[in-house]
Amino acid sequence: AIDIDKLRSASGAITIDPGYKNSGSCTSEITFLDGEEGILRYRGYSIEELADKADFLEVSYLLIFGELPTATQLEKFENDIRKHTLVSEEMKSIIDGFPRTAHPMGVLASLTSALTAFNPKPVNPNNEKEMYEAVCKTMAKFLVIATWTYRKKMGYPLNHYDNSKGYVENFMSLMFELPTGSYKPDPKVIDALDKLFILHADHEQNCSTSTVRIVGSSHAGLFASISAGVSALWGPLHGGANQAVLEMLQEIHDNGGDVDKYVLKAKDKEDSFRLMGFGHRVYKNFDPRATIIKKAADDVLVTLGVDDPLLEIAKKLEKVALEDDYFKSRNLYPNVDFYSGIIYRAMGIPVEMFTVLFAVGRLPGWIAQWKEMRVNKEPIGRPRQVYTGYTLRSFKEVKDR
Ligand code: ACO
């Protein structure tokens, strides 16, 4: 067994591990991931079974509180989230200050951080009641402001949560409902989105989650830590890849659909282009989420009667890359983001919102990891370095430089 107290007090030699490829930052009971075997489990339950049988709020509860909720606990959780869905009117003046051209992820990070101003009391993670309330509040308000980033972009009036609808259904109607009240989402679309949120809900110590943990390790509040997670997720090498994949597929399509040309380009070391949606730091065999999403993409397109040429390009690209020695020798496979954008597009979600959807799905994971880190009383995250700059130099007055 690992003696964590001994590791915590360790000091002395410094290991250099850029990108933390081989460094564990914590112990965790939340998510198990085996990159060689393509296994992903939340609290011991396989992602395949959860995606098939559970719903997003059930999975959120499981991740955050450690066990699947009973029917009573689940109903209470949903009701308690509803109690917090009202977002302060003053938040609207903050959102008004952004230009409509602003990227929704930037707006989301800012609004999440701004929530701190309206909820200044720090939560004590060891007080179960306080923590439970903070969880419900965060799940409620983050969902609403995430949809507001879209309404802002479109110049539409901001919508409020409808307590007669479920959490994921609300996400869609908060985005798309117009004052005429005519928006009726297909229940199969809601189910597919629910599944996508489950697949994104946690993924152990990825870039955004590690960010949430390290920011929280300074005892910064939950909203501030999650806001930092949103910023980390935004990058195209992480959650921003779902937007980048769609833009790449569109570009291939607009240039005549020649996938071989793009595979060649991705292999060219002089070219910074990478096949977006390919490769993963941990999965070196296949990403189990991608397998589920590929099937879901087929199903959603059939349900909605959408014939998307980009899905064909994606399939062709996958086939060519998987047979290519460059990709085979580096264990580069499609990741979760490779097919998710195709589904979002079929649902009518604009490309710039894709990473926001990822953030809504990842929220319970961020909360669970923040809570675990604080309850475990982890020390402040503070990596070391090996200094490679100048040795001591004498200062020169500006006139002598
Ligand atoms: N296209 C072409 N070559 C690639 C790709 C790609 N998508 N991904 C990795 N490689 C190559 C690298 O050039 C490198 O080649 P080399 O050994 O000849 O130098 C080798 O594969 C290893 O790549 P690294 O960048 O060292 O792997 P790392 O684990 O650091 O990066 C990452 C993983 C960031 C996901 C990378 O594969 C990538 O950039 N993929 C595209 C972006 C993407 O899809 N991100 C989403 C990840 S999933 C998520 O965050 C939800």
From TrEMBL:
GO molecular function, one term: citrate synthase activity
Gene3D superfamilies (UniProt xref): 2.20.28.60, Citrate Synthase, domain 1 (1.10.580.10), Cytochrome P450-Terp, domain 2 (1.10.230.10)
Superkingdom of origin: Bacteria
A Pfam family annotated for this UniProt entry: Citrate_synt
Keywords on record: Acyltransferase, Transferase, Tricarboxylic acid cycle
Pathway listed: Carbohydrate metabolism; tricarboxylic acid cycle; isocitrate from oxaloacetate: step 1/2
Alphabetical list of SUPFAM superfamilies matching this protein: Citrate synthase (SSF48256)
InterPro entries, per the entry: Citrate_synth-like_lrg_a-sub, Citrate_synth-like_sm_a-sub, Citrate_synthase, Citrate_synthase_AS, Citrate_synthase_bac-typ, Citrate_synthase_sf, Citrate_synthase_typ-I
Keyword Transferase on entry: yes
Catalytic activity line of the entry: oxaloacetate + acetyl-CoA + H2O = citrate + CoA + H(+)
Similarity annotation: Belongs to the citrate synthase family.
Protein name, as recorded: Citrate synthase
Natural source organism: Flavobacterium ardleyense
